[in-house]
Amino acid sequence: xxxxxxxxxxxxxxxxxxxxxxxxxxxxxxxxxxxxxxxxxxxxxxxxxxxxxxxxxxxxxxxxxxxxxxxxxxxxxxxxxxxxxxxxxxxxxxxxxxxxxxxxxxxxxxxxxxxxxxxxxxxxxxxxxxxxxxxxxxxxxxxxxxxxxxxxxxxxxxxxxxxxxxxxxxxxxxxxxxxxxxxxxxxxxxxxxxxxxxxxxxxxxxxxxxxxxxxxxxxxxxxxxxxxxxxxxxxxxxxxxxxxxxxxxxxxxxxxxxxxxxxxxxxxxxxxxxxxxxxxxxxxxxxxxxxxxxxxxxxxxxxxxxxxxxxxxxxxxxxxxxxxxxxxxxxxxxxxxxxxxxxxxxxxxxxxxxxxxxxxxxxxxxxxxxxxxxxxxxxxxxxxxxxxxxxxxxxxxxxxxxxxxxxxxxxxxxxxxxxxxxxxxxxxxxxxxxxxxxxxxxxxxxxxxxxxxxxxxxxxxxxxxxxxxxxxxxxxxxxxxxxxxxxxxxxxxxxxxxxxxxxxxxxxxxxxxxxxxxxxxxxxxxxxxxxxxxxxxxxxxxxxxxxxxxxxxxxxxxxxxxxxxxxxxxxxxxxxxxxxxxxxxxxxxxxxxxxxxxxxxxxxxxxxxxxxxxxxxxxxxxxxxxxxxxxxxxxxxxxxxxxxxxxxxxxxxxxxxxxxxxxxxxxxxxxxxxxxxxxxxxxxxxxxxxxxxxxxxxxxxxxxxxxxxxxxxxxxxxxxxxxxxxxxxxxxxxxxx
Length: 737
Description:
Blueprint: E1 3-9, E2 16-23, E3 27-33, E4 39-46, E5 98-101, E6 112-120, E7 140-148, E8 153-162, E9 167-176, E10 182-187, E11 190-194, E12 199-207, E13 210-218, E14 224-228, E15 240-245, E16 255-260, E17 266-272, E18 278-284, E19 291-293, E20 298-309, H1 313-327, E21 341-343, H2 345-348, H3 354-367, E22 371-374, H4 396-399, H5 403-412, E23 416-421, E24 425-426, H6 431-435, E25 455-456, H7 462-476, E26 481-486, H8 506-524, E27 529-532, H9 542-545, E28 550-552, H10 559-569, E29 578-583, H11 596-603, E30 607-611, H12 619-641, E31 643-646, E32 655-661, E33 667-674, E34 685-686, E35 696-699, E36 705-707, H13 708-713, E37 716-717, E38 727-734
Parallel strand pairs: 21-22, 21-30, 22-23, 23-26, 26-27, 27-28, 28-29, 29-30
Antiparallel strand pairs: 1-2, 2-3, 3-4, 5-10, 6-7, 7-8, 8-9, 9-20, 10-19, 11-18, 12-13, 12-15, 14-17, 15-16, 16-20, 17-18, 24-25, 31-32, 32-33, 33-38, 34-37, 35-36, 35-38
Helix pairs in contact: 7-8, 10-11, 11-12
């Protein structure tokens, strides 16, 4: 059993208490329902036996109040004890995970242990994405119910355990059993208190075309909070948080991760209190969130994936990679090879015609690619980004006929067909807006905030979701559309729905509407590959990956910038989810010129493709692309299903390098890009990881054999760079003894 409960005698009061222990392969998580009924956190870390209740210290700290149930027990204060679900009104003045307002405007909760259950299988969350495990004997669920008898509020704390992956998920369902309407002002489904330790907080900030830049800062008494108030998980911060021991490295040290399975606004952070306890939290953004909870209704919060590693950051990331790849992503393309595609955007932008699209199809076929994607500009009166969003009918003049006609012509060339859509948006210059202006999120009496000259559709409304469902089905039923690029190119600002009774529910219900639409598409078109996108990586999160098993990593296709973007992304997300393309040079974002070989190995980072006009390439460049395509097909399974290692950092090292290692550790693919060159360079060796000790690996290109112990201890020589941004690809295979 991964989960167990036992009664013990409380060391301080002599009364019975219940201890809950969760064991995974290498970690232990423990909590206790104490004699007052409060659920206290005891331990999360390397696997351990026994009970950690002795760690609880009871002291009269002064100005740390005592809950009413404790009477004159002045050394008992939740302000100085570690908790599982800290709530406002408990005398804990640290950051609460739950804030509830009653009908009188009072914000106070008092939750006590009521019941618990342990069952086989992983829980699921109605209407929300969540980690899944199809075999009940490979997962368990612990459910603990806390209750406030005054509010008649119940909190169902859900713990999903995937023991072999060292994964524990946190879910939270709130039920109103009373007669008055409540409002939820803050809901953070994951909160952990660490009683001791010196920690660094690792976060991933960014911007459009520069997402997920790693930042590592010491945790102190000044609270560090990240998040998004944009209605989406955002380019600016990713819903991934890592707490690491100050000495933790890729290969050693204790570290923890929280990853939100949600695509809307979020908040997360860590702070140390005056007594040395560090609180780590993650949940829904508080901005514009005031969710009504009517009598008899329940609210289901999104879940948080948690993992712990005692072996450094690489192991932590690999735990998350396996969880997301195998237990979040679903359907045909969770593990199947992805088609190598050519996207029309950088070749045509919106100036598409039947002739130039078929020319691209001919070029793609000649290069050995699998799929042509028709990007923006194919619908309505779309000549620029000021019109037609919402009018999802093909422009027959541009396409020279129906969309179905174009699909058949592309298919006749031996290529699959894909298409771009941006369903969540609406242009004011559109037939849809002229017919249904109330379908846009827009505050009455005010000029709307426009972004890219578009507004956001109100997905809290069933009629809007139904309209989009029918519009998308009409596109997908035109012919065998096998790839759908789902874009989202602005943040939400005007939070007002004409149908909502309480505007504090809009942003959360918007996400429920989006998830409902995506789930319908997944069910009706099980073989459709949907790629998520939001100006590139503005909505790169585990929630979207539940419906779209790959996401366009960034609109920035420059190979050198991508090294840092993909490096940061790798801390929480498997490379199979990362969509990366080779584009033309000079690069359209920054004008940089990088070698085609370097662009190729940098884009061989998951789902591989091209974003250029191949007709402008030389015969030699076309031959090099054909070689890249052959290499990727040979290595695709190793890249997307192998174990990923960050060998160096593009932020601090002269060489940016990473590797993919097969499950049996007998095959290794190393990619590296030389960032700094010198007129008189010294030797540089790249240390490898994940190899079998005492083995010999042979380079399949040079036929040189290397003892693995030396590759691990010292490394493999990196040739001196000659010219900017030179790339290196090494394929090693273990020799049989």
